[in-house]
Amino acid sequence: MELPIYIGIMVTAVFNGFGCSLFWPGGSIYVNECATDANKGLFNSIFWVFQMVAFITGNLMAAFVIPNTSE
Q1: What range does the domain containing 44 cover?
Q2: Please, which residues have CB within 8 angstroms of residue 34's CB and are 6 or more apart in sequence?
Q3: What confidence tens digit (pLDDT) does each residue in 27-47 have?
Q4: 70, CA 20 to 30 Å: which among 2, 17, 41, 44?
């Protein structure tokens, strides 16, 4: 892997990690304030599903894009 691509990946990973440290508590607090005791589990489940879909699509994009950059 070329050095500029590696550096770019590391820098964006740092920003992503910092952003996730703000997003998880903020998102959870927002979901818990919007939900009642009856539907709190449903809202948290929907929030979790969207997070997992984002992780899967991000990893798939990385799996297909990064190997093609060395051509």
Answers
A1: 3-70
A2: 43
A3: 888 888 989 989 989 998 998
A4: 17
Q: How far apart are CA 29 and CA 33, in angstroms?
A: 6
Q: Please name the amino acid found at residue 31.
A: V
The set of long-range contacts for 19-24, using a CB threshold of 8 Å and a minimum separation of 24, is none
Q: Mind giving me the DSSP string for 5-58?
A: HHHHHHHHHHHHHHHHHHHHHHHHHHHHHH--TTTHHHHHHHHHHHHHHHHHHH
pLDDT tens digits, one per residue of 3-36: 888 888 889 989 988 988 888 888 888 888 989 9
Q: How many domains does the chain have?
A: 1
